[in-house]
Amino acid sequence: MTDPLILVTNDDGVQAPGLLMLAQALGALGEVWVYAPDREQSAVSHGVSLHRPLRVTEVRPQWFMVDGTPADCVMLAVRDLLPRRPSLVVSGVNPGANLGDDVTYSGTVAGAREGMLLGLPAFAVSDVAYGPKHLETAARVAAVVARHALDRGLPPDTVLNVNVPDMPFEALRGVAVTRMGRRDYKDEIIRRTDPRGGVYYWIGGAEPSHVAAPGTDFEAVLEGRVSLTPLHRDATNQGAMAALAEWGIAL
Ligand code: MN
């Protein structure tokens, strides 16, 4: 039997330490191929490059960089470049949490989501610290989750979002299946002037805070547990359908 092919991507670029650690940890489970953006692509969400050509450069055997987004990487790799269809897509390890509403902005999650859209088991993995000291813990957790995903598959139309507390592996307090929490972003728009008098803006502000509601991803990582959130492909708010139907819009 051939080893399962595991596609690895990220949104931090091909040079990111979390990518290397993830690829190394997954190497024990199968044949790892890396397709990653050539530079930082954090917070690009699920963008795909439709209006310009994409270049793919081999960095070393089975490692490639793409001058595009995480979703571009996965789309190109799965649809055209890989020698066979992957058994699993893993995106990360992101240095920084992807909790609650972060999921909407996250390039890391989008890399995994693209795998799911292509019909493959896929998950994203993040170390919740912005200056992580224990990326190897998240990589090790990813290998454990990957083994289960390869053995059992994932439920259909589900992409898994994994967040790992930044601590030694032995200090983790288990695994929790969680729901998405909510972020409270404190974005400030900072207006500045460049040396030639042009006005420009920064989206700045403090680190977002959050509500550690029961059962959420936030609560789990605060308690030192690995958070596994199954994200649904279908974003329909079923509970809102009746209320909208009641509008009785007629044209
Ligand atoms: Mn990132």
Give a short summary of the structure.
The chain is an alpha/beta fold. The protein is built from seven helices and eleven strands. It has one domain (5-183, 210-245): Stationary-phase Survival Protein Sure Homolog, Chain: A.
Explain what you see.
With 251 residues, the chain is an alpha/beta fold. It has one domain: Survival protein SurE-like phosphatase/nucleotidase (Stationary-phase Survival Protein Sure Homolog, Chain: A). 27% of the residues lie in helices and 31% in strands. It contains seven helices and eleven strands. It has helices at residues 17-26, 70-81, 102-105, 107-117, 135-152, 217-222, 241-246, and strands spanning 5-9, 31-37, 56-60, 63-66, 88-95, 122-127, 158-164, 175-177, 182-193, 199-211, 226-232. The strands form two sheets. It has a nine-stranded mixed beta sheet, with helices on both faces. The protein has a two-stranded antiparallel sheet with strand order 9-10. Strand 1, helix 1 (17-26) and strand 2 form a beta-alpha-beta unit. Helix 2 (70-81) packs parallel to helix 4 (107-117). The longest helix has 18 residues, at 135-152. The radius of gyration is 19 Å and the shape is globular. 42% of the residues are buried. The model has no long low-confidence stretch (mean pLDDT 96).
